[in-house]
Amino acid sequence: MKLKAPATILWSLLIAAGCAPGLIGAAPSTEPTKYAIKIDSQPLGTALQALAKQSGVQIIFFSQITEGLRAPALEGQFTVSVALDLLLAHSRLTFRVINPKTIEIRALDADSSQNQHDAPAAKGAKARAPADPRRSPGEKAAVHNSAALEEIVVNSTAEGLVATRTETPLREIPQTISLISQEQIRQQNDTELADALNNAAGITVVRNNSLSPAFVSRGFTITTFHVDGGAALNSFGNTPIYETPDLGEYDHIEVLRGADALFGGIGNPGASLNIVRKRPLATDEALFSAYAGSWNNYRAEADVTGPLGFEGALRARLDVVFGDRDYFFKPASLERKKVFGVLECDLTTRTLLTVGGSYKWDNALPLINGWPFYADGSDAHLPRSMALAFNWSRYDTQTREYYAQLQQSFSGEWKLKLNATSLDTAASYGYGVFGSPIDPTTKALPVLPTALFSPSPNTQDQFVFDGTLTGSFDLFGRRFDVAVGGDYTHFKGDVPLQLVFGFGPTVNNVFTFNPAAYPDPPVPNPGFLRSLATTNQSGEFASARAYLTDALSVVGGARVSSNRSSNAIYDGPTPATLDSIQETKDDDKVTPFVGATYNLNEHYSLYASYADIYQTNNGARQIGGAFLPPVDGIDRELGIKSSWRNGALNGIVVLYDIEQRGLAVIDPSASFAEQLTYSPCCFLSNGTNKSKGVDAELNGALAPGWLIAAGYTFNINGGVKGDDLSGATPRHLLKLWSSKQLPAELERWTIGGSVQGQSSNFADSNICLQMDLGNCLGPQQSTRAVQGPFVVIDVRAAYQIDSHWRAALSVNNVFDRVYYQTIGIPSGGNWYGEPRGFVLRIDARY
Known about the structure:
Structural class: mainly beta
Number of helices: 6
Shape: globular
Distance between the termini: 36 Å
Helix content: under 10%
Strand content: over 45%
C-alpha cells in the first residue's frame, strides 16, 4: 500500500487555485456588508453565537463575562457592528475588531478606550475563540485561565450525532450525548480512541488484543463510527485488521449512548461515536507536546496551523506524531508514525472548501490472546509482566485517508454540507497464539500454539459520502429546523490467511514460559484461506424540529436504509475453490426517531425520546429461503438535562429501556433436508436482547479553571437465551475526572486526577476437555470467570513554567491495584489493567 503523494499535492494546488480567483474577483466594497439577522431574545452568550453563525464572522469571548446577561430580539438587515451595538446595549461590554474575520467581546473596563470597534489588531495578536468554527465544528465556551498555556476549552454543543444535523446545545438534544474535550484528552494523555473511551462515562473497553479493543455501551458492542458527522464507518475494532485511531488528528469526541436512528445505518442500539477532526485556525499557532512514561513509553507531537495567504482565506494545519512504546507485559511493543494535513479555503463568503488526509504507519509486536486461566475458570495469577507472545511476532499496518468537505451557506440559515472520505488499511503479520487453559495440576498448557501469517497484505478499503441540507423557517409564528440528506458507504475486504497448527515445544509450566524456546517462526503450509467481503450501504433521512412554545420543542424524523453484503471464503490464492459464501440483503428498512424537550426554567429541561436502529441478521434464512428481516434496536429514554454558565457545564440524568427485537433463533420445525437447502438455514426472527438502566453525568467547567467529567451508570441486560447479554458490562460503573487551577500565588499550578470504580463482571464459556488440532474430541465443561469490584485512582500535577511552556506529571493506578480490565475465558482473553505507572509531559504553545 503506497501513499499517493501526487494526489495530495494536486489537491493542495487545486484548493489554492480555487481561493485565488475568488479573492481577486471579489474587491472589497466601500459599503459595510449587511446580513439578514434573526435572533430571538435569549441569554447574551447564546445570542452572540447565533450572530457569529448567521454572519460568518468569528466572535470570541470568555463565557463568564456574559453570565446573567440577556440580549434583546434582533431581526432585519444589519452590519455586524450595528448588530453588536444592539446586542451589547446596557451590558457594560464592548467589542474590538482583531481582523476582518475576528471580533473580540470584552468588558468596558478591560480597555482604556471606550470605543475601539475599528481598532486594528496589534502585530502578532492572537485570540482563542470559544465560538471559533475553525477550532472545532461545534460551538464552544471558554473558561479564563490567566496563567494558562492555552485557554481551557469545553464543548457545549454537538453537531455530528444530533437529529437536526445542526450545532445544538446539549440541553436541547433529546438523547444521551457526551462530549470528550481536547483539554480532557490532553490532560489524561489519551493517544488512541481506546484511551479516551476508557475514561468516558458509560463505556466499557473490552480488550481483544494489544492493538484493537472493542467498546461496549449499555450492554451492546459499538459498531457505528462517524468522522466529522459524516456517513457511518464500520471499521474501528470490528474488522479482521487490528488497529485503533490515533487522536493526533482529532479535536474532540461526541458519544451518543442509545440508538443512532437517523445516521447510523447498520448498528447496535448501545451507542455510536463521532470523532471530530482538527480544523485550521484563522491565526498562527504552533503546539508541541512530548512525554516519557513507564515501560519505555515515548511520544512526541507537533501541531502547526494558521493562514497561508489571500487575507486569511486559505488556511492550513499539519500534525505529526511519533510514538514508541513497550507495554508492561513483555515482549509486546508498538512503534507509530502519523502525518495529518488539511487545507481550508473560503472560496466565497458563503462557500468553505476543506481537503485533507493522513497516513499512519504502525509496527507492532503484538499480544493477541491475553492471559489464560485454569480450566475451571479460576485465576492462575500469572505475572502481569509476562506475555505469551513470541519475539518474532509482528503486526504492521499502514492506513491512508483522504477526505474533502464542502459547506455552502445560503440566505437565512440554510446550509448544504457535502462530505467524502476514502479510508484504506493494509496489514502484514505473523504471530503465534496459545489457545488452551492451564492444567491446574501440572501448570502446563496442554495444547501447542497456533501461528497465523498473511501470505500477502490483508486490505480493507472504505469509501463514504454524504450530503445534508439544513435550514430554518417560520410557520404560524413558530420556528422550524429541518434536515434532509443521504449517505453511501462502500466497504471491501481482502483477507488471505495461512495457519500453522501445533508448532514448537509444549509449555510444561506456564509460569516459566520463555519466548526464547521459540526462536524462529514456523514455516506455513503453501495453501491458505482467503476471505473476500464487500458491503454497500445507503440511506436517506429527514428530520424536523418544531418550537411549539417558548419552552416546548419536538423533533421527529426517519431514515430509510438498504444494505447489500457478501463474504466469500476460498481455498487458495485465487478465487478458484469456493468454500462458502454468506450473503445479506436488507431493503428499505425504516428507522424512526421522535423526541421532545421541555424547558422547566433557565437551567433545567425534561426530555423523552424514541429511537430505532437496525442490525442485519447476517444472511440468516427462513424455511423456503427468504432472508430473515433485519433486527430492530429500539431505545426509549426519559430524562432531565441541565445547563449552567452559558452551556459551559452540562448535566443529565436519564432512564433508558432498550429492546433489540427480531434476532435469529433456530427454527425447531426445520427438517434436515431444508437445513441443507440454504445456508445459513433455518431460523425464526423472534429473539430479543434487553437492556435497561440509569445514566447520570456532569461534564464541563464548574468554575473558571475547574473542569469536571463525572458519570455513573447502572445497567441490567439479558440475552436471547435468557442469560446475560454482556457479562463484560458491570452493573455499576463510576468514572470521575477533575482538574483545578489553584488560586492566587499558586495559580501556576493545576492539580487533578480521576477515579474509576465498578462492580463485578464476568465471562461464561464452555471448555472442551480434550482438543486435537483445533477440534474438540471430549466433553465440555461450563465455567464462569469473575472479576470482583475494584477502584483505580490516577493523579496529576501541572506547572506553568511561563506563558509558553507547561510541565505535568501523571501517576496512574496510584495504589497499584491488581485487576483485570477485561475478563475472558479460561483459554485466554483475560487482560490485566495497567499497573502503577508514571508519565512526565511537556507542552508548548506559540
